[in-house]
């Protein structure tokens, strides 16, 4: 998949996951009165489950075989946990130390974490699609796979 097309799909999935994330945080923090870090964590977990499904269905071509999907999810989960830690640290810095309102902080933090998510998933989850070479022999086409 071409990188631009992949970035476009990543952005669409990201907007949907971010909407889920923001709505849950808003609900938890503003309507229920939950601590913003607990609400951020809960929102992140729920949006990450959606993001995994959508990313692996529409954005990334996995390098894992069907029998290895548990490893793929584990890598995605580890990267997401790193993203969660990064999110909470940046939220703390912005809200508690920078006195930036929670939802504005969330917007700024989301941009940083989104860049981290795309790059890390591109490196650690996505496989390299097989290159095919067509060979014509007596009007019959054969395809030979070459792995990178």
SSE inventory with pairings:
Blueprint (H helix, E strand, L loop, with lengths): L2 H30 L3 H23 L10 H29 L4 H23 L6 E7 L2 E7 L2
Antiparallel strand pairs: 1-2
Helix pairs in contact: 1-2, 1-4, 2-3, 3-4
Which band does the percent of strand residues land in? Answer: 5-15%
Low-confidence stretches: 129-148
Gyration radius over CA: 19 Å
Going by helix content, strand content and strand pairing, the class is mainly alpha
The helix fraction, in percent, is over 70%
Which strand order does the major sheet show?
Answer: 1-2
Output the helix-strand order: HHHHEE
- The tally of beta strands, per DSSP, is 2
Outline:
The chain has 148 residues and is mostly helical.
Descriptive overview:
By secondary structure, this protein is mostly helical. It has helices at residues 3-32, 36-58, 69-97, 102-124; strands spanning 131-137, 140-146. The protein has a two-stranded antiparallel ribbon with strand order 1-2. α1 (3-32) packs antiparallel against α4 (102-124). The longest helix is centred in the first third of the chain and has 30 residues, at 3-32. The chain starts with a helix and ends with a strand. 22% of the residues are buried. Residues 129-148 have low confidence and may be disordered.
Keywords:
disordered C terminus; 148 residues; 71% helix; two-stranded antiparallel sheet
């Amino acid at each position: 998949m071409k990188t631009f097309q992949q970035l476009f799909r990543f952005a669409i999935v990201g907007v949907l996951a971010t909407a889920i994330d923001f709505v849950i945080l808003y609900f938890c923090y503003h309507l229920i009165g939950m601590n913003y870090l607990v609400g951020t964590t809960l929102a992140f977990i729920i949006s990450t489950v959606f993001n995994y499904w959508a990313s692996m269905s529409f954005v990334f071509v996995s390098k894992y075989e069907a029998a290895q999907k548990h490893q793929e999810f584990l890598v995605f989960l580890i990267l997401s946990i790193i993203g969660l830690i990064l999110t909470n640290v940046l939220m703390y810095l912005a809200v508690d130390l920078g006195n930036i309102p929670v939802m504005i902080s969330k917007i700024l933090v989301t941009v940083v974490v989104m860049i981290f998510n795309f790059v890390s998933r591109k490196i650690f989850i996505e496989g390299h699609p097989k290159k095919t070479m067509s060979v014509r022999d007596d009007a019959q086409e054969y395809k030979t796979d070459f792995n990178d």
